């Protein structure tokens, strides 16, 4: 059954998100008319796990929740996909299960970890910014790799791009250059083992690069960039 809850009652299961991705979605959703916004909210049902402490732990849609928070939307739909509130397992066993089943991502915005779950933010206002997570999202949206059903797949791509140091020389001011390079890397042999890898022809690779350049320029124009909540 899909119910509604105050989004600040939902517990994140990851440390970071891509704030540039959040910015893009805020711009998009803020333009929606009332009916389209309602459809958008109804279509995003947040999957949660009810923990041994009866708290609701978010399995997916962390970015969606932050977008809602910034737009003043407080109530969201959720669905319990696993209820462990009556389980006899210990606290440690619960978090071991969360990590093993890929229902939590214990790595910080620097790609380092695993970190202890006691440092997870209490609600979405505490999520940190991982710019490489945004790069992964932009590159996927451009078609340089496919969406994957595997939880936290884009974090794997983020860490792949992070290891290449795409932002080391110019920081976020070099986003356009970094995204073009990321598209090339996403098509390389080194990326073959990553979820959603798919080889494009040269024409589609060129289109993907053109797409990420447009996204980078739009991101630079966006003065509502979210540094923190």
Overview in brief:
The chain is α/β, with parallel strands linked by helices.
In words, what does this structure look like?
The protein is 41% helix and 12% strand. It has helices spanning 19-30, 34-43, 62-70, 91-100, 131-141, 153-163, 175-186, 202-221; strands at 3-6, 10-11, 16-17, 46-50, 56-58, 75-83, 128-129. The chain has a five-stranded mixed sheet with strand order 1-6-4-5-2. Strands 3-7 form a two-stranded parallel sheet. The longest helix has 20 residues, at 202-221. The chain is globular and about 55 Å long. Mean pLDDT is 93; it is low at 224-229.
What are the main properties of this structure?
alpha/beta; Conserved hypothetical protein from pyrococcus furiosus pfu- 392566-001, ParB domain; 2 domains; five-stranded mixed sheet; two-stranded parallel ribbon; 41% helix; globular
Major sheet summary line:
5 strands, mixed
Strand content: 5-15%
Fraction of helical residues: 40-55%
Order of helices and strands: EEEHHEEHEHEHHHH
N-to-C span: 31 Å
Unreliable stretches covering 5 or more consecutive residues: 224-229
CATH superfamily of the largest domain: Conserved hypothetical protein from pyrococcus furiosus pfu- 392566-001, ParB domain
Spatial shape: globular
Topology, number of strands: 7
């Amino acid at each position: 059954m899909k119910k509604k809850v105050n989004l600040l009652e939902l517990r994140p299961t990851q440390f970071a998100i891509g704030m540039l991705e959040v910015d893009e979605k805020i711009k998009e959703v803020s333009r929606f008319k009332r009916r389209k916004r309602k459809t958008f909210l109804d279509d995003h049902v947040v999957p949660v796990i009810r923990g041994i402490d009866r708290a609701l732990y978010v399995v997916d849609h962390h970015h969606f929740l932050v977008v809602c928070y910034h737009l003043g939307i407080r109530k969201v739909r959720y669905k319990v996909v696993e209820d462990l509130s009556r389980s006899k397992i210990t606290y440690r066993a619960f978090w071991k299960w969360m990590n093993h089943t890929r229902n939590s991502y214990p790595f910080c915005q620097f790609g380092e970890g695993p970190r202890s779950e006691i440092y997870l933010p209490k609600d979405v206002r505490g999520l940190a910014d991982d710019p490489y997570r945004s790069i992964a999202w932009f590159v996927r949206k451009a078609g340089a790799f496919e969406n994957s059903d595997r939880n936290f797949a884009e974090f794997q791509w983020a860490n792949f791009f992070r290891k290449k140091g795409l932002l080391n020389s110019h920081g976020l001011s070099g986003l356009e250059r970094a995204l073009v390079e990321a598209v090339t890397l996403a098509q390389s042999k080194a990326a073959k083992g990553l979820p959603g890898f798919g080889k494009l022809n040269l024409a589609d690779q060129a289109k993907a690069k053109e797409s990420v350049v447009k996204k980078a320029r739009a991101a630079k124009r966006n003065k509502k960039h979210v540094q923190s909540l």
